[in-house]
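User: Here's a chain of 156 residues. Predict its fold as tokens.
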Amino acid sequence: MKKIFKWILLILVVGFVVAQFFQVARTNPPFAAAQTIDNIVNVPADVHATLTRACGACHSNQTDWPWYSHVAPTSWFVVDHVNDGRRHMNFSTWVRPGHEPQDSIDRLKAMCREVQSGGMPLTSFEIMHWHSWLSADDVKQICDWSTAEQKRLGTM
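Assistant: Prediction complete.
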């Protein structure tokens, strides 16, 4: 039994070491300041702070890559989550020219829906980033702002 355990442990260690040679790209692509959420919609300072704290790591091109994002296989999941988050909503590239204001309205609706349902932030992110947890007040703040901005943009 001890011999089997030692072999299993050796295989796991070797596998872990080999996995380090298969790193994924951690990027923070450049972006134009004119395309950011801050330049398209009115984001009050308190809402901006909440969005940065709870959402910015995965939904912007300004990700602060934590130490564990450099260690495979965890890095594979982290990079995939960030890339997926950026695809769905990216505060750094908020606009698609020719699709405003409807893009902003749709994104604001989705943002409120996701935080109300508890779908965002991801539980796996919250475990490692306890500061990203959204309180009921945070959710209300985001949704109240989102609703007000949707109305403002809808009358433009």
